[in-house]
Specification:
Blueprint (H helix, E strand, L loop, with lengths): L1 H19 L6 E6 L21 E5 L8 H4 L1 H4 L8 H6 L2 E6 L2 H38 L9
Antiparallel strand pairs: 1-2, 1-3
Helix pairs in contact: 1-5
C-alpha cells in the first residue's frame, strides 16, 4: 500500500510540474495606488478605468519594482501630466514572491492523506459484513441456574 501511495505521489508531482509552469508566476510587483479620478486632467474624456487601484507586473526584478516602471505606463492616458508625479508618489509598490514548489508539495500531501482515508474507509466497509457474520454465528444461550 505504501508503494501505491508513493507511485501516486510521483505521478501527481510529474503532472503538476508539467502543467503549472505556464499557469503561475513566482514573482510579481504589486502597486496599490489612489483612485485616478482625483488626478484626471480637464481634457480627459475616458472614464472607464478611473477607479482602478491595483497594478501588477509579473516576472520583474525587485530593483525596478517602483511606480515609475509598473504604474506610469498604465495611467498615462488617464492622469494629467501635471499630476503624474503626485499620483505616483501616493502609490505603494511591493515585490512579492511565492514558492510554488512548496504549494505543490502541500497539495500532493493533502491528496495523499485523502486517498489514504478513502482506502481505509473502503477497507472498513469490506470488513463490516465479515464482522457481522461472526457476531451472529456465535449464539447466545441464556443461563438458567436457579
Amino acid at each position: 500500500m505504501q508503494i501505491w501511495i508513493g507511485a501516486t505521489a510521483l505521478v501527481l508531482i510529474f503532472i503538476g510540474s508539467a502543467s503549472a509552469e505556464a499557469n503561475f508566476e513566482d514573482t510579481r510587483c504589486r502597486c496599490v495606488c489612489p483612485s485616478t479620478m482625483y488626478f484626471v486632467g480637464d481634457n480627459a474624456t475616458e472614464q472607464s478605468d478611473n477607479r482602478r487601484r491595483y497594478y501588477t507586473m509579473t516576472n520583474i526584478s525587485p530593483s525596478i519594482c517602483n511606480p515609475q516602471s509598473v504604474v506610469k505606463g498604465e495611467v498615462t492616458k488617464y492622469v494629467d501630466e501635471m499630476h503624474m508625479d503626485a499620483f505616483l508618489a501616493n502609490c505603494d509598490c511591493r515585490f512579492e514572491s511565492r514558492n510554488t514548489v512548496m504549494l505543490k508539495v502541500v497539495v500532493i500531501f493533502v491528496i495523499c492523506v485523502i486517498m489514504l482515508l478513502v482506502t481505509y474507509m473502503a477497507f472498513l466497509l469490506c470488513l463490516d459484513p465479515v464482522l457481522r457474520k461472526q457476531r451472529f454465528q456465535s449464539s447466545y444461550r441464556q443461563q438458567n441456574d436457579e
